[in-house]
Design brief:
This protein has about 110 residues and is an all-alpha fold. It contains four helices and no strands. It has helices at about 5-20, 20-40, 50-70, 75-105. The relative contact order is 0.15.
Length: about 110
């Protein structure tokens, strides 16, 4: 049985939203992007519109958390750069999901 990507995304988002130290934050962010990136590998029928909306909302919360963390400047410049790259990765994956949904619904 394949793991539920939505449940995993929720779990990872929760870690990102509550992590105090950079290592768990970064690890969860990397996995979060991978999980979102795996969504188009599933049949479109596997996800209702409200599920996709939930994933999008989670992604926006994660992006907001990243932006807040970068603004606090508590991490090294290298870590901050990786976090900003994470924002771009999330936005790219969200766009991929949007295109996948549009293509599958036609």
């Amino acid at each position: 049985m394949q793991p539920d990507p939505v449940a995993k995304a929720v779990e990872l988002a929760q870690t990102i939203l509550t992590a105090k130290h950079s290592h768990p934050f970064e690890k969860a962010l990397e996995e979060f992007v991978q999980v979102l990136g795996s969504i188009p590998d599933h049949p479109a029928s596997a996800f209702a519109d409200d599920t996709i909306a939930t994933l999008r909302d989670l992604a926006e919360q994660v992006i907001e958390q990243i932006e807040e963390r970068v603004a606090r400047a508590e991490d090294s410049s290298h870590v901050q750069q990786q976090l900003v790259e994470g924002v771009y990765d999330i936005r790219r994956v969200l766009e991929d999901i949007y295109r996948w949904r549009q293509h599958r619904q036609q």
